[in-house]
Structures are given as C-alpha cells and as structure tokens.
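Q: Hi! First time doing this. I have a protein sequence and I read that you can turn it into a structure. Is that right? Here it is:
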Amino acid sequence: MAVSPPTSPSEVLADRALWKDGWYRYARCLRSPNFGPRPRATAVSLIVLHSISLPPGQYGGDEVQLLFTNQLPAHAHPYFETIHALKVSAHFYIRRGGELWQFVSCDDRAWHAGVSVFDERSNCNDFSVGIELEGLEGDAFEPDQYATLSALCAAIAQCYPVANVAGHEHIAAGRKGDPGPGFDWPRLQRALAWPPERFPAALD
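A: Yes, that's right. Below is the predicted 3D structure, encoded as structure tokens:
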C-alpha cells in the first residue's frame, strides 16, 4: 500500500520544509562518495533497516562515518583490516542517543543492501532507503533510536511512496542477520500506526 502524496498546499509546504533534493532537514549531513543514480522511473517503495557498530559491539566513535566516507584506518583495529577497502554507504545512520546522520540523498541509490530480494524484486538498493542503527546484531536498541527512527520513517513516507519496511535479514536471508531479534518491530509499527502488512512477516 503506497502512501498518498500531499494534496493540500500546507502539506506540500511541509514536505518542502523537510526535504531538499533528497536531503532531510533534521539530519546531520556527511556526504559519501559511495552512491549512484537510481534506475529511471524507479520509485522508493522500501525502507531497509540495518545495525552496525565498529568495532562490533563498541559504540560512540566515528568509525561508521569513516567507513561510509572511505576513510576507515585499517591499522586502528584488526577487524578494520577486513573491511576498510569496502565501498559501502547507507542513506541514514542513527546513533545510540538518537543523533541522525545522512550520507546519501534519498533521490540517489546508496550501497547498503548488496545481493538482495524483496517481494520477488532483486537489487533492493534500486528502490529502497537504507537506515543503519548503531547497535550489535541481535542486541536491543535504545528508546531514543526508536524515536528518531519512527520520525524519520514517517518523514520518508511523506516524500516517497513507501509501501514496506524490512530488515537486512529479510532481504538477504541466510547472508545477513541484522538488525536481528533484538529489534522491536511491534514497537516501530505502533509508533508509526501503519498497517502490520507493511512490516516483516515476523511481526505476526
């Protein structure tokens, strides 16, 4: 079920106040070089949730920002030697305290999903917005993160015809497991007041 576009002048003005060229007003901007154009006539219909922490299980540093801007120092931690050369990005990153960063315009294609399939459509990067939550796969997330995430999802759906929200684990089953069982899908569904069918089947 797609979200209807704004119809009244006040709704249109509200959308323009929140977004400019795919950049969200309330996010801290740090542009990643890792993006590309979406295929022609491809609408954003999916939000994909991820979890990330660098090194795994450690919070509060700037390593995720460095990874998404190709500046992660390989020598800083043994784990970084295995990932520092990756060219990856997400549209958004939500810190444990709810702070929101944006790396790629939502009008563009970020490199977050990899090999993926949703609703029999492959290459989910083409039609999705990727949101990274600072956290460890399987662990719990913070109330401030849910507050920022629900507000962000609502804002995305005001500007783009979002029909579904899924985890990386749902679009790359067997390859990825994030955000994992620690993520509270019913909590997000209640906060957004969207129908359950717009969320993963695991919500039932």
